[in-house]
Amino acid sequence: MRAELKARFKSHRLFAGEPAADAPVILTHRRIFILPTLRGLSFVVVLILLWLIAFVYNNNLAYLLTFLLGSVFFITILHTVKSLSGLSVQKGRVHPVFAGEAAGFMLHLNNLSNYERPQLSVTLDSTEMLSLPAAGKAMLSLYSSTHKRGWHHAGKITIASCYPLGLFRAWSPIRFDFKVLVYPKPAMQESPFPDTSPMAASYGINHKGSADFYGLQTYQPGDSIKHIHWKAFAKGLGVYSKHYGDGSATELWLDFQQTQGASVEQRLSQLCRWVLDAERANLRYGLVLPGLSLAPDNGAAHSIQCLEALALF
């Protein structure tokens, strides 16, 4: 019991909230904090001045006005806390993004009471305002900027209200086990796919004959117009020609060791660009990272698998 009380009154709960959880959170008096706003403190100063005037001049009307405004001040505390108390908050879905993009975290709010909850603010990196009708529900997306690949955690989400008079601010810091996978930022500069024929033998790729397709190369003057990859050109990926050869690789391999770049992040960025371009061009491609090899394939599931491998490398 003593340990529970000690944990309840820890000061960091004021700012960080309870430990992260997956289950829906219902805002109770344990989770809600309240303090006067600047307007509320100004209101207190006015009350003190009115009380001094009433005391000095022994004016009953001044006493009446002071006590009337004082009762409004204290009743406002109850209404401000009530605007949050009993509200249910649940985390929703998240979708992977590329580094540098804003990650969207979906949040579900459920008003379990039969009275309206106006002027609610929900804050992550920015603040969203909303009002919930009686027994109503709302869904909103909160955005957080990302800067590097890997798992990006949402962190603290703050739900607050200054209803009804703005004299007090009640807030509740909430933490969910809320994270989104951030893929490497694709390289901005387009570059041709790597020449995969030297790698084919080392990965045991079958050969089919003297006219095997094994990848794309930047279009060169003199290349046959029949070999131009029109799908890639139509999608704005550049002008590439299909490359054939005798006994060459039948698959496109994207190898970390064969990728140019001054750092690991630049190499991963280039591999990410190639994965996206190969998928758009409907090519079969494999991915080779130190300690990991993904067999050639194509389709949404394969591209997601490759991007996840790059993100978690």
Strand-helix topology:
Elements: H1 2-8, H2 13-16, E1 25-26, E2 33-36, H3 38-57, H4 60-82, E3 87-94, E4 97-98, E5 102-111, E6 117-123, E7 127-132, E8 137-145, E9 150-153, E10 156-161, E11 168-175, E12 179-183, H5 197-200, E13 212-218, H6 230-234, E14 240-245, E15 252-255, H7 264-280, E16 285-289, E17 292-297, H8 300-311
Parallel strand pairs: 4-12, 15-16
Antiparallel strand pairs: 1-3, 2-11, 3-5, 5-8, 6-7, 6-10, 9-12, 10-11, 13-14, 16-17
Helix pairs in contact: 3-4, 7-8
Mean pLDDT: 83
Q: Rounded to an integer, what's the Rg over CA atoms?
A: 31 Å
Q: CA-to-CA gap between the ends?
A: 45 Å
Order of neighbouring strands in the sheet with most strands: 2-11-10-6-7
Helix/strand/pairing class, anyone? alpha+beta
Question: What is the β-strand count?
Answer: 17
Q: Flag low-confidence runs.
A: 197-212, 245-249
What number of structural domains do the residues give? 2
CATH class label of the largest domain: Mainly Beta
Portion in helices: 25-40%
